[in-house]
Each structure stands twice: as structure tokens, then as C-alpha cells.
Amino acid sequence: MEMEVSEPTPEALQRKLYFLLEQLQDMARELPPKYQMRVPIELLSGLANCLLNDTIFEIVKGLMEIQHVTEKHLFQQRLQIINQHTMEIQEMMKNTVPEQQEVQKTNLLRRHKEELKQTDMKLVLQLDQKVSDQQDTLEKAGVPGFFVTSKPIEVKVQMYLLDFILRLSKMDIPQ
Asked: Which domain of life is it from (predicted)?
């Protein structure tokens, strides 16, 4: 015998909507003033409406997990390069006559610094791409306030909105 999943009543949805909107307004009030003005009531209302469907919470949690895995992976890549550099210096010290060690070490350190700088630039580009992918996913899912941008103030507002969604996902929301 299959159990029927009953649709929430309009009253229940209204209660949930009011709860979400009230929580979002409280969270928005905690923001620094220059961000508060970028989160108008229309945006919060649209976000509350969008969060009536729990799918958005799942999407955001999934994006967070992907981001954590990506960050860990990129951090490991960076550590590998640093370890490789350390081994190169040790190897050079073993195989170089003492008079040459200082010059060799200076050259290696200069090269390592440049390699690390290049690596860091690549890692930042990969993280920027991840942010762009997340913005695109959330925009396609119809989440208000999300669109692909690299403007720092707009990205910061989106980070606040994501934080709001994550905080709401941990609350007991009336059903």
C-alpha cells in the first residue's frame, strides 16, 4: 500500500513563507550598511518564495561540498609543489660543492618563488571558475540575487545570501 504525500495547505505554505521572510529580514539587518542596501525587501521576498521548495537547500549544500573538495585538492597541489622544492634544495646541497651551494641555493629559491607564484595564480583562476559555476547553477535554479559576476561587492552580497540559505537550512522551518 503506497502512502500518499499530501501537498501542504495554502495556510501552511503562507506560514512557512512568513517564517522564511522574517528570518531573512533579521539576517539582513545584521549586515554592514553598505550591503544592507543591496539586499532590498523584494530580493528577500523572492528568496523566501524560492526557498519554499527544499531543492534549493539541497543544491546549495551540494555546491558547498564540491567547493570543499576543490579547495582541499588545490591545497594539496600547492603542498606538493612546496615539498618538491624542499627536496630539490636538499638534493642540490648533497650534490654541490660547498663553495657553489650558496649561489645554487639562491638561484633555486628564486625559481621556486616564481613557480609558486605561477601555481597560486592558476589556483586562484580555478577558484574563480568554481565561483562562476556556482553563480550560474544558482541563477539557472532561479535563486534571486544570483548571476555570474566578478565584481567584489556583488560576489560579497551573494556570499551573504548563501550564508542566509545555509543558516536557514539548519533551522526548524514550520512545514
From this structure: Eukaryota
CA–CA distance, 133 with 148 (Å, rounded to integer)? 8
pTM assigned to the model: 0.80
CA 52 to chain CA centroid, Å, is 23
Please tell me whether residue 31 adopts helix, strand or coil conformation.
coil
Q: Tell the residue number behind the cell numbers 571558475, with chain if given.
A: 129
Residue 21 CB neighbours (<10 A): 18
C-alpha 78/C-alpha 82 separation (Å) is 6
Grid coordinates belonging to 77: 597541489
User: Cell numbers of 127, please?
Assistant: 577558484
**pLDDT tens digits along 22-36:** 999 999 999 999 999
Q: Which residue has the cell 649561489?
A: 103
pLDDT at 53: 87
Cβ neighbours, 10 Å, residue 92: 15
d(CA 58, CA 96): 57
39 exposed, middle or buried (CB, 10 Å; 0-12, 13-18, 19+)? buried
Q: Report yes or no: 63 and 57 within 8 Å, Cβ to Cβ.
A: no
119/81 Cα distance (integer angstroms): 9
Which pLDDT does position 175 carry in this prediction?
A: 73
